[in-house]
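Need residues for this backbone.
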């Protein structure tokens, strides 16, 4: 079943717009993976890079988990694919499957949506240990949009290399 991508509104309050743009970027990553086999999703962009579409999905699961659950919600949890806190481990999708990667990613996205919905405002803060600084939910949402946008550009090029499909 193809991914439904709903374009963000052109008018709305800050939170509604941020929520919609973030969901649009999430849907774009899923859309770039539509119709591909596990093998095609694992195909690396170019040697020696380990970057693949499946690796991007796994990486974004880690990003969602870290920024929303660990930073904003303050949950004391590790990463999904690395006991040592190595974000690069998610990119190694040699033995990964669509079902496990997408299940983890979608689970983290649902946690992120819940945390954002339950927050009183975008001014809610959490502690980012990596930066040794307090950050707002507003910054987290903007950072996630930036992260998805950058990686969706990678996904576009990888997808074109897999089967020639292009488009934003």
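Answer:
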């Amino acid at each position: 079943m193809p991914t439904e991508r709903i374009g963000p509104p052109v008018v709305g309050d800050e939170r509604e717009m941020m929520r919609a743009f973030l969901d649009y970027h999430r849907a774009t990553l899923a859309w770039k993976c539509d119709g591909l086999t596990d093998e095609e999703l694992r195909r690396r962009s170019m040697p020696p890079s380990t970057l693949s579409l499946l690796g991007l999905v796994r990486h974004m699961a880690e990003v969602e988990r870290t920024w929303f659950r660990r930073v904003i919600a303050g949950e004391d949890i590790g990463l999904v694919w690395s006991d040592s806190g190595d974000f690069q481990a998610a990119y190694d999708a040699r033995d990964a499957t669509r079902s496990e990667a997408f299940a983890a990613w979608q689970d983290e996205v649902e946690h992120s949506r819940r945390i954002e919905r339950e927050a009183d405002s975008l001014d809610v803060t959490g502690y980012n240990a990596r930066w040794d600084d307090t950050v707002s939910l507003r910054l987290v949402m903007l950072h996630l949009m930036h992260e998805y946008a950058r990686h969706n550009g990678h996904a576009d090029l990888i997808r074109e290399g897999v089967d020639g499909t292009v488009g934003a």
